[in-house]
Design brief:
- The structure holds two protein chains of two kinds.
- Chain A is of the alpha+beta class.
- Helix content of chain A is 38%, strand content 25%.
- In chain A, strands 1, 8, 9, 10, 11, 12 and 13 form a seven-stranded antiparallel sheet that branches. In chain A, strands 2-7-3-4 form a four-stranded antiparallel sheet, covered by helices on one side. Chain A has a four-stranded parallel sheet with strand order 15-17-18-19, with helices on both faces.
- In chain A, α10 crosses α11.
- Chain A is elongated, with a radius of gyration of 25 Å.
- By secondary structure, chain B is α/β, with parallel strands linked by helices.
- In chain B, 38% of the residues lie in helices and 23% in strands.
- In chain B, the strands form two sheets. Chain B has a seven-stranded mixed sheet, sandwiched between helices. In chain B, strands 9-8-11-10-12-13-14 form a seven-stranded mixed sheet, with helices on both faces.
- The chains are: A alpha+beta, B alpha/beta.
Chain lengths: 389, 290
């Protein structure tokens, strides 16, 4: 789960990591109010989960209330596309922040290194820009330090990292403290990524996090009720929002074939095979392990709520998921909602014979069975009316 | 032979009294696994269809000689159950539970490593050595003993490919689901090393998916260390590019994590990659025959 900048900064404040004074503003009126309280100049910053906001015009400096109002009105509702073509994301809220006179920009982050099975701290004296480019052109400028899994990051180690990165002596203590704090926050809040780009030196030589990218491990939300609440507010695509509330992993795609799989791997493979068969998947939906009839009903409801969907493919290989539960879910959902889209079912694995028997007895029209994944993909592409173009 | 689980496996199930624990624990027993104990705190002294339940893993070990633990407890308690098994002297811990916080796994990974315990998972389907033992949720009835080792990040996709191999007439030495979480106890390379040393395994099918760089690291490892042929499959070619959230991930791995990048890395080392589960099985059978 990715946090918006202001959510990340509020998390930093809670843990004593210095950030510029700021206020969250859901609309233009409250933006001006916030700016008045903070004092001018202020930065009016679009809150979207994507980089490249500045270039897209999503960050503006206001030196008085009129400018603050004008910028806020211009930015709210703006559509921002990411540097890699992601989105567009519509700006729904703002962060109003005290204007900072920047003396220097660094880059600091902590990330879970999956290969090393350790947290990795990254620091560079050059920040505020594309850090990937720095890593490529001048690898030594980006200092990497793996955090000891038992001891954590000590202040001495952090100072050493700052020294290696060429952070000037007058700010080294503050930067080192930030690194120690990043590791503590990552552990305390279950963050798999915290990136400060830039970590800025502002007037008076104070080091503050000027931007915040934070990714929280979704598996940990049971012990972070306050972060779980944020997840509820993130909104987004109506189908994705509906799926999230029902605890399903759903990603909307732009085709017309609804896909239901159990397990992320099989579901991804199903999308690939549907594409190879000449079809266009409308979604990725992983019902997860051990989905019961109710979960299946929820999933079918989410898939068919997308008006583009012309046919649905169920590709189930039961392990912990039981075929009879899947069948009960399909039958219940179809009967209750009156779905009349063609559906192709491919059911294998645990209790699949029982499941197929139940489906056979159900008397539902327009339900097709295929024995193989490839056969099922070809059938659903045919039923959806060909290539989906 | 086979790897990780076999006829010497003596299994203790953490969470045996729960819905999933009892269903799969009893299934594993029906499939020939020696299921010697269950552990549920507060339910010591009970039994599940003849399998004695203990309050702690330590008691289960001393009373029954359990040497392998299957973890089927809810996510908030899963890492704790793994830690308990490691402390009790269990040699192989297989964690099925999905949704374990990754920070918990960072601690448990190093605890297992320091104790010399083989940890598989979490968020994995377990390990099946057909005809010998099944620890986990893999539907054993679809697999027969044979010369192909399978190692996979994904559960259901493993069944799919194992099943296709079976239909193509090739059985399996062992099927190992390593799990798709960011931090798992054993990576592709750990399991590939075991298959290399297993005389019954003649070749390996490796099943990967988008994210991380475990497949890229495996490609390097295979080129340098494996004498046995490997055929790979990667899922997720049509997966939408995730929204970028910081760049640190790409920097550390040096890989974009896409299916294409993984396929390219494998093929650069001479490892054949199937386009679909069916094609992968076909290539594997061809390699085995050739």
């Amino acid at each position: 789960m990715d946090l918006l900048e202001y959510q990340g900064k509020e998390l930093f404040s809670k843990h004593g990591l210095p950030v510029p004074a700021g206020k969250h503003a859901p609309d233009a009126e409250s933006a001006v109010e916030a700016a008045d309280q903070i004092g001018y100049p202020v930065a009016v910053k679009a809150q979207v989960l994507i980089g490249g906001r500045g270039k897209a015009g999503g960050i503006k400096i206001a030196s008085n209330a009129e400018e603050a109002a004008a910028h806020a009105e211009a930015i709210i509702g703006m559509e921002i596309t990411g540097p890699h073509g992601e989105g567009p994301f519509t700006v729904g809220e703002l962060w109003i922040e005290e204007g900072s006179e920047i003396e220097a920009e660094y880059y600091a982050s902590v990330i879970l290194d999956r290969a090393a099975k350790k947290l990795l701290v990254l620091l560079s004296a050059t920040g505020g820009m594309d850090v990937e480019a720095i890593a490529e052109s001048d690898p030594d400028a980006l200092v990497r330090h793996h955090v000891d899994p038992v001891k954590g990051l000590t202040m001495d180690e952090a100072l050493e990292v700052a020294g290696k990165a060429g952070i000037p002596e007058e700010t080294a203590d503050q930067v080192a403290a930030v690194l120690v704090s990043l590791v503590e926050i990552a552990k305390a809040e279950d963050a798999t990524l915290i990136e400060l780009n830039p970590l800025a030196v502002v007037a008076g030589g104070k080091v503050v996090a000027l931007d915040a990218k934070v990714t929280i491990d979704g598996n940990s939300l049971f012990r972070h009720p306050e972060l779980a609440e944020l997840a509820d507010d993130l909104g987004g695509d109506p189908q994705e929002e509906m799926a999230r509330r029902k605890g399903l992993t759903y990603v909307k795609l732009d085709g017309d074939i609804g896909v239901f799989g159990n397990g992320a791997g099989l579901c991804m493979s199903t999308l690939d095979v549907v594409a190879q068969a000449g079809g266009k998947p409308a979604n990725f939906l992983d019902a997860g392990g051990g989905a019961r009839a109710e979960g299946i009903m929820d999933a079918l409801e989410v898939i068919t709520s997308d008006p583009k969907v012309k046919a649905v493919l169920f590709n189930i290989f039961g392990g912990i998921t039981r075929g009879d539960e899947v069948a009960r879910g399909i039958i219940e959902a179809t009967k209750r909602s009156g779905i009349d889209l063609p559906m192709v079912v491919r059911l294998d694995g645990t209790n699949s014979d029982e499941g197929l028997a139940l489906l056979g007895e159900s008397g539902i029209d327009n339900l097709h069975y295929e024995k193989t994944m490839l056969g099922a993909a070809e059938k659903v592409v045919e039923l959806a009316g060909g290539s989906g173009e | 032979m086979s790897i990780i689980v076999d006829q010497d496996t003596r299994l203790v199930v953490a969470g045996l009294t729960g819905r999933e624990g009892s269903f799969h624990g009893l299934r594993n027993r029906e499939q020939g696994t020696e299921v010697v104990a269950g552990v549920t705190p507060g339910k010591g002294g009970q039994d599940v269809e003849g399998i004695p339940v203990f309050d702690t893993v330590a008691e289960a070990v001393s009373e029954t000689g359990a040497n392998t633990s299957m973890i089927l407890v809810p996510p908030p308690f899963a890492a704790g159950a793994m830690d308990e098994a490691i402390d009790a002297g269990i040699g192989t811990v297989i964690a099925i539970t999905e949704g374990v916080p990754v920070m918990d796994m960072l601690d448990t990974y190093w605890k297992a490593r320091d104790a010399g315990v083989r940890l598989i998972g979490p968020n994995c389907p377990g390990v099946l050595s057909p005809g010998k033992a099944n620890v986990g949720i893999i539907p054993a009835e679809f697999f027969e003993a044979g010369p192909i080792g399978v190692v996979s990040k994904s559960g259901t996709l493993t069944y799919q490919i194992g099943n296709e191999l079976g239909q193509a007439g090739a059985g399996n030495s062992s099927i190992v689901g390593i799990g798709g979480d960011p931090v798992v106890g054993s990576d592709f390379v750990d399991v590939l090393a075991l298959f290399e040393d297993d005389p019954e395994t003649e070749m390996v099918v490796m099943v990967g998916e988008i994210g991380g760089d475990a497949e890229e690291r495996a490609a390097e490892y295979i080129a340098e260390n494996l004498s046995k042929p490997v055929v790979a499959y990667i899922a997720g070619f049509t997966a939408p590019p995730g929204k970028q959230m910081g760049h640190a991930g790409a920097i550390i791995s040096g890989s974009s994590g896409t299916a294409q990048a993984k396929k390219d890395a494998l093929e650069a080392k001479g490892i054949r990659v199937g386009k679909s589960p069916t094609e992968t099985a076909t290539i594997a059978v061809e390699v085995l025959g050739g």
